[in-house]
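Model it.
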Amino acid sequence: MARGNDAPMEVDAANPGSDNNNDEENADSSDVEQLYAEEYEALSTAMDEINACLDVLERKNNELFLQMRKLLDEHKKGNGTDTTGDGAAD
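Modeled.
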């Protein structure tokens, strides 16, 4: 019988503890958000700046690719030959 009495007590004891843990976790979470709000904002701003720089680099990369493609096409037309050979200079 003692074993049967122990089991309900463990379950009952576990339920209130889990509720308290959830309350504590929620309180800790809001404290962390308040304490580090400035750091989060600074990090977000830095990430926005990095993204803007990456956008600029991507545009420049695309422009360079188009210029290289154009030069390659002009070179093919200017030589009147196909450049699939050994790549040796003339």
